[in-house]
Amino acid sequence: MYIRYKLRLLLAAGLLLLTSAFSVADPLSSWNDSDSKKAIIRFVEKVTRKDSPDFIPESQRIATFDNDGTLWAEQPVYFQLIYALDQVKKMAPKHPEWKTQEPFASVLRGDTQKVMASGKEGLMKILAATHANMTAEEFHANVSDWLKTARHPKTNRPYNEMIYQPMLELLDYLRANGFKTFIVSGGGVDFMRVFAEQTYGIPPDQVVGSSIKAKYEVRDGTPAIIKLPEINLIDDKEGKPVGIHQYIGQRPSFAFGNSDGDYQMLEWTTAGTGARLGLLLHHTDAKREWAYDRDSHIGQLSKGLDDAAKKGWTVVDMKNDWKVVFPSPR
User: Fold this and answer.
1) 31 in a structural domain
2) Most Cβ neighbours (<10 Å): which of 138, 299, 320, 328?
3) Known InterPro entries for this protein (predicted)?
4) Residue 87 lies in a domain
5) pLDDT tens, position by position, 151-198
6) Domain with 33 in it: what CATH number?
């Protein structure tokens, strides 16, 4: 009897320990126990507890994330630009005039510096050539095929694996607590919609980005959306709150960016009433990723660093706040 009683006690204790282990499982296990992690958990707990004065109804729990440099890497240049340059090379045999026509000639020579020096006008020519005058389905297929074979020049990973493990955990944590997660990025909306759901669990209708105009027409008896070489929305800086207003229709309560291009999104988010949280990812890890901020040609972060404290924004230090950066290779 005593032995059976002891066995029952041991079994009960084991079940209790197992239950406790699951109940205290860390949803942000790739984050160090830093102030930024504590700020996130503190915010989520207070806005989801019904007896809290800061409670936010589930229908109003909107979280917005920049993509480039926030959810995935952005060095040495934006990945969408690398896609566009690769497309120019792929299309070149049908455009012999590009051998002497800038900025295409510089692309074909591999002179990325000169391409960047061509400025907005040159980049618009490249985007028009590689993103427009095709159906939405054709563009989707082109991007999908590129992602299957293209590799990052430093890590040799597929670009859609250059994502941040701590951010994947954060997205899951927010969704588990009733938040609807959106991408709000300066990148092209049609480009991001190709991979956002599989990569981040964010469906196409929750992606807001820069866009070109489009029209409806029937081609060869088939209805189609045709992408046009005209700008519709630049979803960067002041354009981000406008994009959020037009496509989401609610002011977020949570916003996460990494550059001065996200400044207005965080500013507008945290200016609302009630509990708000704005975060900036500071790239400080030259060993595991890259270290850059004020003088970078990509993802410049200067004004955001200067104003974060007075705005009440949390700065996440990649080197000190994250245990890991990228997920384990698949």
Assistant:
1) yes
2) 299
3) HAD-like_SerB, HAD-like_sf, HAD_sf
4) no
5) 999 999 999 999 999 999 999 999 999 999 999 999 999 999 999 999
6) 3.40.50.1000
